[in-house]
């Protein structure tokens, strides 16, 4: 980019001027370090606090929130490290000659600590196996020894103790070989790799500055620290930009590895030639360092040969025995069949794996025979094979669908998933019948674990796609796994919760807004699970509907609420009790007679019970809902419409529903504060004409309570008026009001 290019050009000019003599070398270090650190600091501060930072949804799980904030936290720590590195370079000309090494060492320590914390905060990458770590270590051992030897020979002799000189030489060798390895590794084009390379170069420059002699002997040697310092801080900023903006995908091109061998060897040769020309003979440490590279080279060759033999493709090996009975199982058209073959193919892909695994589930809308299902599966595999590229692999998974392993990146893999949905959604003409299928596709990136983990992740994403309605593609992430595991726990624990006595009711009083006296209460379901904690209806009811146990839960709520209402009515108190029912409960044939039987069993007057149904779910079965509500009203039971949205269609639908109470939420109440949109006033006016009383719910502030009262609402409920509580607490609250006439 232009600013970085300008800074590098200015630094190059400063180095040339410093080498020529007009500007002191430490002045060049200060100016160049300040320029590079300023630009890098601006870049990193924008990444940390800029408007392009994506907001973190507070509703997501803790693990997902931590993952989302890791890059920003890393950018903040690296920003502080860059600032300290720049300040270290800037204060060197100002410090006296005796304190310069100490100042450089202090800056090195602070920068190293912050760089380490920042690099540890980078997003996790899959760890290679132990054999891969050993091989990488040996890859860098011999070049590291060579570069340590170069540092030992080039560091000044006078006034420097041998152990200190050796420690500095080892530090320089490790940092230099680490920089070479990162810059020439298989993932050198990722943001994380660039950030690590920049950190290594920055530390290399600060080590050089700390190793300079205290006196004027430093001279032009200080200029050697300028290029790694400036390039290092700029690489840190560029790498973090890729990390934060998700641009750091691994490059699929082959990166050259020869610099790791050639650069250290050439450096050793040139340094030895320089030392011989200067008349310096090799000392004991020089000979030992030169010999230390030999064992590393031998071990590297031995391990490399074993690795090559273990990774030789089966097709290139000379068979010395009959073919194994575990040879790949293929179906029609040579497509591998079964999960075992899929796992074997995933394990055989070279490291680092790039691409995605797609698991496709086929859900036939009809229920054909086994032979017809096999024909449909074969046709689905043929269509998938026609949609994929030559390098992609398709696997038939009997009984569940199919899988595709592709080397494409995330965007192209998602596009392939959508194309598969289109191709697999076309009708199937088999055995004289026309069948239709609704597919669900789950994706997982190949770089995220072992084959078994990848298949599990793709399966979880596929299941999520099926839960959301099918005909969709879903990516795996950690938050998704949290949701699915939570869902599985709910499905496992919820059946039998009634029998185990784990259900409970809390009650929220409903007050008359004119005098704040209680007129009723709403029964709210809670599941006190010893395994999952307290589960609320918003999470509980969808699972109950899928398990088809809503009726069982609803019957328990009705019985418990009516029993509690009978206890509160002993002293002549007249309260109503509201219970929430789903449309599935309400439209069941036995709902009305069952409700009447419970009221009779507890001796509760019908007008003391209020049956609430949510307005957004009424439209799907409006005629049946109207009939059930009319049946309840004919018995004297009051009915209510909850979650009223006050839209045009809702107002039109309101005329058809036989209800006594209309419950409006905070979005309707809040709109009444706008003089140009008196929405609540309109709702109250329409309700008055229909003979319906309005209850304002979820009132959270005195301002909302006053607005509801001014608009003409008779009743209200919410935290501002009374919080949900257990039956005992609500009973103590009711004792403050001697009589409740309604």
TrEMBL record:
Single GO MF descriptor: cyclic-guanylate-specific phosphodiesterase activity
Keyword Flavoprotein assigned: no
Name of the protein: GGDEF domain-containing protein
Residues covered by the EAL domain: 487-738
Annotated region described as Disordered, given as residue ranges: 309-335
Keywords: Membrane, Transmembrane, Transmembrane helix
Transmembrane segments: 75-96, 102-124, 136-154, 166-186, 198-215, 221-244
């Amino acid at each position: 980019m232009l600013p970085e290019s300008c800074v590098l050009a200015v630094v190059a000019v400063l180095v040339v001027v410093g080498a020529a003599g007009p500007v002191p070398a430490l002045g060049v270090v200060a100016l160049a370090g300040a320029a590079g650190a300023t630009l890098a600091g601006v870049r990193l501060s924008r990444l940390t606090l800029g408007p392009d930072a994506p907001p973190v949804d507070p509703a997501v799980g803790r693990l997902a929130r931590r993952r989302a904030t890791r890059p920003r936290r890393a950018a903040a720590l690296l920003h502080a490290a860059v600032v300290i590195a720049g300040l270290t370079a800037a204060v060197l000309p100002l410090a006296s000659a005796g304190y310069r090494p100490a100042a450089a060492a202090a800056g090195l320590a602070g920068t190293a600590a912050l760089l380490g914390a920042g690099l540890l905060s980078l997003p996790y990458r899959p760890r290679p196996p132990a054999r891969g770590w050993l091989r990488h270590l040996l890859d860098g051992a011999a070049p590291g020894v060579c570069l340590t030897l170069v540092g030992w020979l080039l560091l000044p002799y006078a006034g420097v103790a041998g152990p200190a000189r050796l420690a500095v030489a080892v530090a320089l060798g490790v940092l230099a070989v680490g920089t070479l390895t990162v810059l020439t590794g298989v993932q050198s084009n990722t943001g994380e790799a660039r950030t690590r390379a920049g950190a290594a170069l920055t530390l290399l420059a600060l080590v050089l500055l700390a190793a300079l002699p205290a006196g004027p002997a430093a001279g032009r040697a200080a200029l050697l620290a300028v290029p790694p310092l400036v390039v290092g801080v700029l690489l840190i900023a560029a790498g973090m930009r890729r990390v934060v903006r998700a641009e750091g995908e691994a490059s699929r091109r082959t990166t050259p590895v020869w610099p790791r061998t050639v650069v250290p060897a050439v450096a050793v040769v040139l340094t030895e030639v320089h030392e011989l020309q200067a008349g310096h003979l090799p000392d004991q440490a020089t000979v030992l360092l030169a010999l230390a590279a030999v064992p590393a080279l031998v071990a590297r060759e031995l391990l490399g040969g074993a690795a090559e033999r273990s990774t030789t493709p089966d097709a290139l090996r000379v068979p010395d025995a009959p073919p194994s009975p575990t040879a790949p199982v293929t179906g029609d058209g040579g497509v591998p069949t079964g999960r075992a073959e899929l796992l074997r193919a995933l394990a055989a892909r070279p490291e680092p794996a790039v691409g995605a695994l797609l698991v496709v589930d086929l859900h036939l809308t009809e229920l054909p025979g086994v032979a017809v299902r096999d024909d449909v599966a074969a046709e689905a595999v043929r269509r998938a094979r026609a949609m994929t590229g030559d390098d992609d692999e398709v696997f038939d998974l009997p009984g569940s669908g199919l899988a595709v392993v592709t080397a494409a990146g995330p965007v192209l893999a998602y596009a392939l998933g959508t194309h598969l949905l289109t191709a697999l959604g076309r009708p199937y003409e088999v055995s004289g019948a026309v069948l239709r299928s609704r597919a669900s596709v789950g994706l997982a990136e190949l770089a995220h674990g072992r084959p078994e983990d990848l298949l599990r992740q793709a399966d979880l994403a596929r299941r999520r796609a099926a839960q959301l309605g099918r005909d969709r593609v879903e990516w795996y992430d950690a938050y998704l796994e949290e949701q699915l595991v939570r869902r599985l726990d709910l499905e496992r624990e919820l059946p039998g919760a009634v029998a185990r006595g784990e259900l409970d009711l809390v009650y929220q009083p409903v007050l008359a807004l004119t005098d704040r006296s209680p007129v009723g209460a709403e029964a709210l379901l809670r599941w006190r699970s010893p395994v999952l904690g307290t589960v609320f209806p918003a999470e509980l009811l969808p699972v109950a509907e899928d398990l088809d146990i809503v009726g069982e839960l609803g019957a328990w709520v009705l019985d418990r609420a009516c029993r509690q209402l009978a206890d509160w009515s002993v002293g002549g108190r007249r309260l109503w009790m509201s219970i929430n029912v789903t449309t599935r409960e309400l439209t069941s044939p036995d709902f009305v007679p069952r409700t009447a039987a419970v009221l009779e069993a507890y001796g509760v007057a019908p007008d003391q019970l209020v049956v609430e149904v949510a307005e957004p779910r009424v439209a799907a079965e409006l005629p049946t809902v109207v009939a059930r509500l009319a049946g309840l009203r004919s018995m004297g039971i009051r009915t209510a419409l909850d979650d009223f949205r006050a839209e045009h269609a809702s107002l039109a639908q309101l005329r058809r529903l036989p209800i006594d109470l209309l419950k409006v939420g905070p979005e309707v109440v809040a709109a009444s504060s706008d003089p140009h949109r008196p929405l609540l006033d309109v709702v109250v006016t329409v309700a008055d004409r229909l003979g319906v009383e309005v209850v304002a719910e979820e009132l959270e502030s005195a301002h909302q309570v006053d607005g509801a009262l001014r608009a003409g609402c008779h009743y209200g409920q919410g935290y501002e008026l009374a919080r949900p509580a257990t039956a005992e607490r609500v009973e103590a609250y009711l004792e403050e009001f001697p009589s409740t006439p309604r």
